[in-house]
Amino acid sequence: MAADLVRKANPRALPLVALAGLGTMAILIVVGVVTGSVFLIPLGVLLGVLVAMILFGRFAQSAQYSAIEG
């Protein structure tokens, strides 16, 4: 339901959320594999999900405020 509201308010928001999350994951996973640090791989997954959730929340909040304004 929130995704539909965000998509109607800003069609580019959901791809940006996905790219930010996957980009964060990819960077930390690649750094973890290159340096041999196993710790960075799960950290990359968690931070990627966190970044995506934060961005989605901000887009959803702005979409809700714009819907209230009319």
Task: Describe the protein's architecture and organization.
This protein is mainly alpha-helical and 70 residues long. The protein has one domain. The protein contains 3 helices and no strands. α1 (2-9) crosses α3. It is elongated.
Number-wise, the strands total 0
Please mark out the parts with pLDDT under 50 across 5 or more consecutive residues, or reply none: none
- Number of helices, where a helix is a run of at least 4 consecutive DSSP H or I residues: 3
Most strands sheet: none
For the residues shown, what is the average pLDDT?
Answer: 93
Shape: elongated
Into which percentage range does the β-strand content fall?
A: under 5%
Give the helix level as a range of percent.
Answer: over 70%
Number of separate structural domains: 1
Oligomer: single chain
Distance between the termini: 18 Å
- The radius of gyration is 15 Å
Global structural class: mainly alpha
- Sketch the topology as an H/E string, one letter per element: HHH
